Amino acid sequence: MKFNYAIERRKFEAEQTKKRSEYLAAGMTARQCDEMYEFDLELFRKERTFCRHNQYFPAGNFEDNDDAEKSPLLKKFQERLSTSDNYDELFDEELLQSIDDISLLKGLQALSTEQLGLLKLWAIDGFTHEEIALRLGITRSSVTDRITRIKNKIKKLY
C-alpha cells in the first residue's frame, strides 16, 4: 500500500493536537510538548521513508502460475530473481561430440564451461544479449564482451 503523505500528515497533526492538550492537562510545559512533537514527527518521517522504499509482499505460494495474486513488484522483477549461474546445465557435451571439424572441435574444447554455456545460449539457442544477461544476472555489455572474447579465442585456435 502506498503512503499518502497528505492524508497521513493530517491524521498525524490531528493526533498531535489531541496529545498536546492531554500533555498540557497532565502538567507538561509547552517546551516539553514541543519536544514530544518533534520526536513523534521524526518517527513519522522514518515511517514515511520506510514505506517509500519498501513494498509489502503478500504471503502465499509464489510457485503457482496464478499471476493475479502476485505482487506487482515481484511480477516486474521475476526474471531478475530467477537467474542461473550454473553453466554446466547450459552446455551439453553431446554437442561437442557432433562436431566433425577437428580444428573447430579443438577450439571449442579450449573454452571453459562458462564460455561454452554462453556460446550455446547465443549461437545455438538464439538468445539475444539482453536475454542472456537477464538469465545469467549480468549486464548486457558484459555478455557482449564475453562473446567477443570467445569468438576471438576460437578464431585464434581455428
Automatic annotation (TrEMBL):
<dbReference type="InterPro" id="IPR013249">
    <property type="entry name" value="RNA_pol_sigma70_r4_t2"/>
</dbReference>
<feature type="domain" description="RNA polymerase sigma factor 70 region 4 type 2">
    <location>
        <begin position="105"/>
        <end position="153"/>
    </location>
</feature>
<dbReference type="Pfam" id="PF08281">
    <property type="entry name" value="Sigma70_r4_2"/>
</dbReference>
<dbReference type="InterPro" id="IPR013324">
    <property type="entry name" value="RNA_pol_sigma_r3/r4-like"/>
</dbReference>
<protein>
    <submittedName>
        <fullName>ECF-type sigma factor</fullName>
    </submittedName>
</protein>
<dbReference type="InterPro" id="IPR036388">
    <property type="entry name" value="WH-like_DNA-bd_sf"/>
</dbReference>
